[in-house]
Structure formats: structure tokens, C-alpha cells
Amino acid sequence: MRRSNIFRLGYKIVYISILVSMATVVHSVERFLPFLPSPVPGAKLGLANIFTLVTLNLFGFIEGVYVALLRTFLAALITGNFSITFILSISGAVLSTVIMGLMVKFFKKYISNMGISIVGAIFHNIGQLLAASFFLNSFLFFSYLPYLLLFAIPTGIFVGLCTNFILRILDKNIQIN
């Protein structure tokens, strides 16, 4: 491996580590926020997905999956929450990241980060409901999906806007490639 490639790999590891760290902190803090009263119990903003979507845009699919998996695992480790909520969280994170990664790779010319984020939020909910249905042996959880979608759309818009803002700042100030 050439020396310049080693330095590039080193920078890539540093950037991804920073993104994992930021996503982990946001994921952990968001878990403890008694934020806005929500008509949808259990709904969260999903702010850690900002860093997953940033990673998908800057580095690609595999790195995005790493960020999603590592932040979910590390947040569970920090909060001591290796229970059914961890399973639900990682199920939603993996499914939404895979779908968003495919969209970034194949449809980025046609769909904005906001659209990708909305679809990611929807599939995050679907992943969680699939996991809950599997573990509790009932597909009745999917009757909750319309209510979750009402929350997923505005939070997906917000995450997409934040992602665009961060990407603009990084584009102006930091050379990634």
C-alpha cells in the first residue's frame, strides 16, 4: 500500500470514528430526553441518523452500516440497555441504513437527502415493528404503523435538513477525499 493511501485510510478512519462518536452521544442523550409530549408513545426524533446519512453520502454503504451498528451497540453499552429495546433499535437501524444506502447509491440524482431520510425513518419503524412482531409472535404491532408514520415524516424532514446543513459545512471546510 502506498504511503498516500495509508494516510487516506487513516483520515477515513478518523472521520468515521468522529461520526460514530457523535452519533453515539446523540443516540444516548436522545434516549433520556423527555422531549416534546408526543401523541405517539415511544416515538423519537432519530437525530443519530443524521450521522448515518452523512456517512452514507461521504463514504458509502459499508461505512454507513458500520456507523449505524457501532452507534447502536455503543449507545446500548453506555446506557446499559441490552434488552428488547436494543433489538428493536438495531433492527430499525440496520433496515433503515440498508434502504438509505441503496437510495444514496442508486437514486441520489433523483431524491434529496430529505426524501432519503423520510424513507429511512419509515423503514426504521418497519424494522422495529418486524422485530417486535417476531419476538412477541404477533403482527398486530403493524396496526401502530400509521401513527408512527405521522411522526416519521416530520422527523425525517428534520434529519434530512440537518444532514444537508452538515454536508454543506463539511464541503466548505474539510476535504474528505
UniProtKB/TrEMBL annotation:
Pfam families: Hpre_diP_synt_I
InterPro entries: Hpre_diP_synt_I, Hpre_diP_synth_I
Keyword field: Membrane, Transmembrane, Transmembrane helix
Gene3D superfamilies, sorted: 1.10.1760.20
Transmembrane regions: 12-33, 45-70, 82-104, 116-141, 147-167
Protein name: Heptaprenyl diphosphate synthase
Organism: Anaerobranca californiensis DSM 14826
Organism ancestry: Bacteria, Bacillati, Bacillota, Clostridia, Eubacteriales
